[in-house]
Amino acid sequence: MVADTGGLEQSAKPATGPEHGPEASVTIDPDLDLDIISHTYRAIVDQEAFDAMIDSWQAKLDRIPDDGKASTQLSGALLAQLALARTTLDGLDIPAQSDPLARAVQDVPGPALVLSPEGRVVVTNTEGASVLGARQGSYLNPDRIDPRSLEAFRTMMRAANRRANRSQAILRMAPLDGGEAILAEAWLLSPKAGDAAFVVIRSLEIEWTERASEMLGQAFGLSAAEVEIARIFFHVRDVAAVAAARHVSLLTVRTQLKSIMAKTEAPSQVELMRLLAMTAGRAIQDRQGKTDTWKDPLGREDVLSLPDGRSIAWTWLGDPDGRPVVLCRGLPMCYLLPPDSEGQLREAGIKLLALSRPGFGNSSQHANLSPLEDNLAALRGFLDHVVKSPCIAIGLSNGVLPLLAEASRRPERFHALVAIGYTGILDRSGIRRLQPTQQAMMRLVGMVPWLVDLMAKQAHRMIQTHGVDWYIERAYRTRPLDYSTCADPNLAPFIRNACSHLLAQGHQTFVRELVLARSEIDAVIDTLSVPLTWVAPEQDGVFDEASFRRIERRNPLVRVAPLENAGELALYQRTSRIVDLIVDIANGTPLGADQTRHTTR
After folding, report:
1. 395, β-bridge pairs
2. Beta bridge partners of 189
3. Contacts of 565 (CB under 8 A, 6+ apart)
4. DSSP reduced 3-state for 53
5. For all residues of the chain together, what is the average pLDDT?
6. Where is this region: Disordered (predicted)?
7. pLDDT tens-digit series, residues 28-82
8. Do the Cβ atoms of 290 and 362 come closer than 8 Å?
């Protein structure tokens, strides 16, 4: 294992010289190295080549011991070629989006969104967020449906759940500002598999902006009055309505329209309308093709700004005045418990504080610090200024690392710790049981971090191009339970939101999380004076009860609680059971392993 270092920029020079020994000590596999180089270049543009690249690295790593000298086993020629690939990738633009859900909201400049079968927002564009208040992961406010279209909307939602035969509709949507209703088209978009479908809602109207007025006036020499007449005509599509809006006669409006048509060379009012639509669309073209940036699905995010420039963001679930329980996510696509669990938390008097660790969401990342130091600084600021009292803290996967590090130094901050899911510090042997992509990247980040930065940048490019489904396919296809969870359209809003939360500031957060996961703080387990419950999902692909229970022999305060019918996405698969566990610990009630194993959701 390697120490936790923050820098990703390591030299790509050959591993030679007095400190490494002669070049002959390097493990050189000409054919394998050529495969890695070839697949790396192809993976920049070919989504399938990424898998071949990982397979080649797996074959390479199988021949290299996982020790402090592992990095010396990579030839300088290989590293030099991969450094060139990294430079090539840095100079490329992101290709067109092919994710069908993202494309559905990017092809129009007006408000657009996609709903899950139960009515949560899966994805929205910037206009959908600003005009209709759509927020990924939350339900669409029913007030945004014009009463005249409510029945048609309900029929579409029933059709999404295969309880009606309608496949499309025209809806009227009510903007947040109380303005005129917006005409929108709605249709069903079926996923690759499953009985339910998504509902796409897209505006049929184009907003007229100040830029459109400027373009029209400058391009055709229209007066300010003529531009205003054109703007109103574009909205109301009727000469009499224009006259009423301007408080002038029909003759005056007709005369002005004739002047406008002459200047624009539009032979008819129909052609003039097409010209105005083109102008309006061109004016907001810079907003077309943009999905909305990550936002807290609960709409409760708060950001603490510290004097040193650090921003610490968090949101919460449950009882606003309840006992604090801190939740730190990890690399798995789980940001927080589904909002449906709020009633259970509120009834138990618990306020679940979901902390965005450095680089996630809107929390700042500080590259001058190592990932562990950065996380500890954010955690301490959060505990000092927001929590302000001893609490229970939960870490998902590697999210438990900063909690363990802080508990070893300041145990009085915590009543108890909970780890949900696997991370290396709990059982180092589990790294060999990780899914191939995770295993290769976890080992390489301990050898040559900039190589993993290259791979993460390639993966981020593929996610931007093909959508989060590209990542899901590679992360979970060998884990049936997690894969089926990802295929549930009603969980798509949460999984996509968690992915956006991770990548909100770019791929570097992912790389630093891998470095964090390899932090050498294993000794804190032996000296930990705070109770730790490790909830270990039995179907995450890493679970090995005999191996996991060795940690209990290292410290009597550590207890392993296997969790049946759960994988890496346990927060979505066993939500009620996990909330029960949180409540039990908060109430000081011991939780037996058999209770965790046999209680159904």
Report:
1. 328, 419
2. 198
3. 481, 538, 539, 573, 574, 600, 601
4. helix
5. 88
6. 1-27
7. 578 899 999 999 999 988 888 999 999 999 999 988 877 656 667 888 899 999 9
8. no
Answer yes or no: are the C-beta atoms of 291 and 114 closer than 8 Å: no
φ and ψ of 433, to 5 deg: -105, 0
**In sequence order, what DSSP letters do the residues of 246-308 get, joined into one string?**
HT--HHHHHHHHHHHHHHHT-SSHHHHHHHHHHHHHHHTGGGTT-BPPP--TTS--EEEE-TT
Cα angle 294, 297, 299 (rounded to 5 degrees) comes to: 100
Has domain 100-203 been given CATH number 3.30.450.20?
Answer: yes
Q: How far is CA 280 from the centre of its chain?
A: 32
Which residue's entry shows tokens 């005129």? 180
Q: Which amino acid is it at 375? A: N
Q: Please report which confidence band the pLDDT of residue 590 belongs to, taking 50, 70 and 90 as the band edges.
A: very low
Q: How far apart are CA 570 and CA 77, in angstroms?
A: 43
Which CATH number is 210-283 given? 1.10.10
Instruction: State the average pLDDT over residues 505-515.
Output: 94
> Quick check: 165 and 159 in contact, CB under 8 A?
yes
What does 166-222 look like in DSSP terms, one character per residue? --EEEEEE--TT--SPEEEEEEEE--SSSS--EEEEEES-----HHHHHHHHHHHT-
Residue 592: band (very low, low, confident or very high) from pLDDT cuts 50, 70, 90 = very low
Q: Model pTM?
A: 0.79
Is 465's pLDDT higher than 70? yes
For residues 278 and 267, give the distance between their C-alpha atoms in angstroms, rounded to a whole number.
Answer: 16
Cα–Cα distance measured from residue 54 to residue 474, given in angstroms and rounded to the nearest whole number:
11
Q: Left, alpha or beta for 419 (phi > 0: left; psi -120 to 50: alpha)?
A: beta
Cα–Cα dist 230/208, whole Å: 10
- Going from N- to C-terminal start, the domains of the chain cover 100-203, 210-283, 302-430+521-598
pLDDT, mean of residues 348-364: 96
Mean pLDDT on 305-330: 96
Tell how far CA 115 is from the center of its chain: 17
pLDDT of 186 > 60? The answer is yes
- DSSP class of residue 366 equals -
Class of the CATH-defined domain 302-430+521-598 = alpha beta
Whole-angstrom Cα distance, residue 597 to residue 474?
Answer: 28
Does residue 463 surpass a pLDDT of 60? yes
